[in-house]
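1st attempt posting a full record on here, be nice pls
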Amino acid sequence: MWFKNLMIYRLNKFEDTAESLEDKLAKMALQPITGSDMQTRGWVAPKTDGEPFVHALGAQMMICLGLEKKLLPSTVINQFTKARAADIEEREGYKPGRKQMKEIKEQVTDELIPRAFAIRSKVYAWIDPKDGWLVVDAASPAKVDEFIGLLMKTVDISLGLLKTKMSPVVAMTTWLADNDAPAQFTVDQDCELKARGDAAASVRYVRHNLESDEITAHIKGGKDVTRLAMTWADRISFVLQENLQIKRLAPLDVIKERAEVSADDDAFDTDFALMTGELRKLLPAIVDALGGEIARTAD
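the predicted structure (as tokens):
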């Protein structure tokens, strides 16, 4: 499997081996939701249930956070609450007041939680101790925070978000304004531009020629580029965000051809090896395109 949305961190301190990390993750494994709990979280095997919590290939490691959450829609709660209130009205001869309705709703919720269905989601991450990368595959900031929060409780680790000398907004705006992408990169056909200020106007282009006078006019009018679709070395396409997050990462045909495996090969391992090999070259290339890296500091 290939990651699609990359939140990129720098490892300032990480001393675990795959074996020691395995032991620590196992102690905080995902447990089923019980009783009145609405959600739970814990570590799960990245590949398949029953396999190690750390999927290691050489020095590269993949780990996975499991999130289990019960589904209890408000419409269901309201339906049962109204039915309970109607029973009281029929039995007692009066409509429950606001305070009693609140109490009924809380009681109904407590009764329904144990019967609610639970859904599970996963958040994957790649750890590269050799080059100092931690990359979380999640589009939602909330899920990234969930992952980092539990990781900090599980492992003795120090990390910080990747920071570059040039902001992505300044760089992307310059690349489009000058029609001059950095070496090894090409600009694709999707972008978003935003005006400065609290009530900023924005415009988004999809499958559009970004070398047009229309784009230039937006930039001259004070709009900055906040997301830009790009391709690196004809190998990987992605969208660079203003916060240095990478979205819609996708391998191109030249890599997909290498990923074709025989029946005796492990597709999961093949993808992991190819992905980490490519990202270990792509991430430094992005850093170079953004003027280099600011000295690492822990958040």
